Amino acid sequence: MENKVKRIKLSKSNYVERDVSWNYFNYRIIKEAEDKNVPLLERLSFLGIYSNNQDEYYKVRVAQLKRIAESVSKSFKDDKALAKKELEEIFHLTEEYRKEFNVALKEIFAELEEKGVFLLNENNVSKSQKEYLKDYFLKNIALYINPLVISKKANLSSVNDTHIYLAVKMEGKKESYLDDVTYALIPLPVHFCGRFISVPSSEKDKYYFIYLDDVIRLNLDYIFKDLPYKKYEAYAFKFSKDAEMEVESDPEEGILKSISEAVKERKKGIPVRVVFGENIPKDLYSKLIKKFEIDDLDIVSIGGKYHNNKDLMKFPRLNIKGLNYEPWERKEIKEVINGDSLLSKIQDKDMLIHVPYQSFNSFVELLQEASISPLVSEIRATIYRAASNSRVVAALSNAARNGKKVTAMVELLARFDESSNILISQTLKDNGVNVLTGQEGFKIHGKIVYIKLKNMKDIAVISTGNFHEGNAKQYTDCLLFTSNPKIVNEVKCVFDLIMMPYDKHNFRNLLVSPLHMEQVFEKLIKNEIKNNKLGLPSGIKIKINHITDKKMVKLLYNASSNGVKIDLLIRGNSSIIPGIKDVSENITVHGIIDRYLEHSRIFIFTNGGNPLYFMGSADWMPRNLYNRIEVVTPIYDPEIQKELEMIVDFGLKDTAKSIIVTNDGKYVKNKPAENNLPFRSQEELYNYYKNK
């Protein structure tokens, strides 16, 4: 009876719904902004990250919940009830966090004043500053101001949720033909003018800035000079629209045009969240509610004076010691420094690149070398997101111009990057690259490259993150360079799967979704239960972004309840509640928020004392396991295995920047033991690679 495997059922008491969990995660970013040990402008940037995350969350997740809640189908009865309950919980959490956000923002600006950095507003500028801002407005801003007067005939369908607006109330008419009150919207031209305007100062070591919003408030009389009212008031107005796209594929139009049209239509999406500036007059509030047809299920709130706080990420950087993190130099690998042939070096030994601690240049160098080498006959690559002016795209284009057979799988439906990826596709096509655009119903999320060589072993690259130069400066990701035929041949087969999805494809080494990844992970977890029952070494360590898939949660609970020790390092959504007696008491869940975004996915299974190591692009969410093509690779090189274990163990040891999820699904800060110094995993990893 002792060897009988226990099986756990999921319930409300041991499973956190994905969207509630996400709010807990984003709240942790506010807590990082409150950390006095973080430099002030970095704290300000964290508030910007929180705001940006919140915007995307409403456009995608909340919009989806709203669609379910408003469904007229009777078959969605239970889903509708759950969606409405979640929307209520989201609204509650949003309002709770908003108050803490505003307090943190005020505290940071108060501390910045102590450092000589001041944020002005339209009410506290001096006479000379006001004159300067009037002149600055006329020369640099006025040409970009295009007000929308709110009238019965006004067409507001093009009002864009990527902008922030000032809602203006004008009253005190001077002419009899005017209405007593007129309303207007002014889109803030942040893209052209920036959000923060520097104001000159004669005082040494003092820096003054003002929001673009307030510069415009100072000049409302000029903007509406052709509508001679006596009084002008302006309040922030912002909303988020449903970002889902309906792509109707027309063979005659082509997929590129279909997606382009869908992106345009997205801008006319239905509002799902509306935020008004504080103290907005009731009549202006009512006018906007009516004009934009905002209903009871839309989340409406009254915020502070300023919105679109994602712009805090771009607050001007100042040459004042201690306001920002000291830069960490990205380490070039010795092969790049020495000018060695990477194609040759990878023949001898697998290589692991850990960005941003190590430079992404090594990947670009590999593609550039492949693009001109007479030994290379073919290159295949997936592109989910790429940087503007991408050197990756340039290298693939150059390879095609040099007569290589180049195939690029560009995922056109990478959310919010659709327009960028359409341009990338066209650039690659123009240079002779064979561009694939994926399968209907399945995003291609795996990050892989295949390079075919003459008289040498072929090469593959498998990454945990995008081949994106910008991301590689901020996201922690691992790239495996290998010539191991067991892996390389199957990477080639993944491209065959993309091109010929209805053919039979067998994978003995790679874990590929939606084919069999979930089944392999299930087998690996059950193997740990079996080993534990036999008295053999067992255990699971996972570093991942999200775990919300109910089957995977249940499997981990089963393993825990059967004595398997499980350590999870989860950056974002976690539906797991650790520490529940007889369910998850053998599970610990850690999370890290620091100067880099934790993004790599690493899986380690003890396997009776002969550990198995994996890394790849997939999280444990339904979309990754069942609705996307994802790739996770085994790691066979002992040195790389050791490095991956170090990366995970450093994260689990972190007592400076990590949290531990508690048995109510929330979290507490992970603190060092008494008399021990804090251990900061990202700093320790930086030092490791610096000295490697």
Task: Describe what you observe in this structure.
The chain is of the alpha/beta class. It has three domains: 18-314, polyphosphate kinase like (2-Layer Sandwich); 334-504, Endonuclease, Chain A, CATH 3.30.870.10; 512-691, Endonuclease Chain A (Endonuclease, Chain A). Helix content is 37%, strand content 21%. The chain is built from 20 helices and 27 strands. The strands form four sheets. Strands 14, 18, 19, 20, 21, 23, 24, 25, 26 and 27 form a ten-stranded mixed β-sheet that branches. Strands 10, 11, 12, 13, 15, 16, 17 and 22 form an eight-stranded mixed β-sheet that branches. Strands 2-4-3-7-8-9 form a six-stranded mixed β-sheet, sandwiched between helices. Strand 8 (271-276), helix 9 and strand 9 (299-302) form a beta-alpha-beta unit. Helix 1 (18-33) packs antiparallel against helix 2. The chain is globular and about 85 Å long.
Quaternary structure annotation: single chain
End-to-end CA span: 51 Å
**DSSP strand (E) fraction?**
15-25%
The radius of gyration is 27 Å
Structural class: alpha/beta
- Label the CATH architecture of the largest domain: 2-Layer Sandwich
Backbone shape: globular
Do you know the CATH topology of the largest domain? Answer: polyphosphate kinase like
